[in-house]
Amino acid sequence: MELVFEEFYRSIPKYGEEVCGDNVEIIKKENKTIIVLSDGLGSGIKANILSTLTSKIASGLLDKELPLKEILSTILATLPVCEVRGIAYATLAFLIIDQDQQLRLIEIDTPAAFLFRNNKVIKLDYNEFELEGKKIRESNFKFQRQDQLFLVSDGVTHAGIGALLNFGLGWDGVAKEIQRTVNKNKNDLKYSINKLVKIFNAFYNNQAGDDFTIIGMKYRKKRKLSIWSGPPLKKEDDQILAKKISQAEGKKIISGGTTAQIAARELNKELKPGLKYYDKNIPPTSKMDGFDLLTEGLLTLNKVLSLLKKYKPGQIPVEGKDGASRFTRLLLESDSVKFFVGRAVNESHQSLNLPINLGIRSQIISQISEQLRRIKKEVKIEWF
């Protein structure tokens, strides 16, 4: 079974602030994943600038594979210190996990990580040392198949302070909430993170007294998605394409009415057109056995592109029941996306009644692919 390392996070700004003072940087390579979390002192724009600077310096140095002590010395020398309070303007936690599932975690002034293993949340074993006058925690361990690891900023451990709880949740309180939530749905990391955000925000009476971030990570089976859009140039390729999409591993989408008709004919399946509009600008979806979604073509693809351009990691996944929203969700939920794109020209697409910026199918799919690569998806395109 092909596994992927999945990570997902949510950041919530302090109540009344426009931006979050925490920042997360993620670098995914073929042989490793780097995750960095920094919490800027205070909240709002100033804190965001400090945490962004810190996390970008750290991730850049880690990506260069410099010795750990050199990386830490550079970061600690770079971090400005508050003259009044005598503490760094930003905290830092980062980890590197390699292709052998060996994980190395460093924490500087952040809450200790939470490891979910065998249905319980446990503390990691740490080696503590001092560098440049700063206490640093380090943990090295083999990440097991069913493990889940969570990093948080102190806005999570402080949740409820001065309101529902005198001293906030603390590490133990957060551990209990993570354990309870993950045990309800171990397979869906995004569900766990979104649920935990609601829980921690509720301890603040839904008016967060501090920025807070929670990052979750785990291994899971690779999610694959195949999409067929457009009839091929050669008529004899109809059957080839229909066979490719029907035998593809994972979830499947057909984009375009003509494409759906070809698939129904070649696969001897019934095509059931939909009539219900969930969005007046997006045509209804259809149904066919063996496929997860059948949509109209260019209007839907154009909307998908628009939604992807607006999407940023850490946001709530796209909502909506219309074809474009469902299409986008399937893309975001997948690790590997393969397009089978037919290049036959549909005369109706040349109509002057279509918006000028609608473009043609191949251009839109190429742009969708660029957006998917931006958010670290594997993308392949086969042209027919």
TrEMBL record:
GO terms for molecular function: phosphatase activity. SUPFAM superfamilies: PP2C-like. The keyword Hydrolase applies. Residues 4-219 form the PPM-type phosphatase domain. The keyword Hydrolase applies. Keywords: Hydrolase. Pfam families: SpoIIE. This is Stage II sporulation protein E. It comes from Halanaerobium praevalens (strain ATCC 33744 / DSM 2228 / GSL).
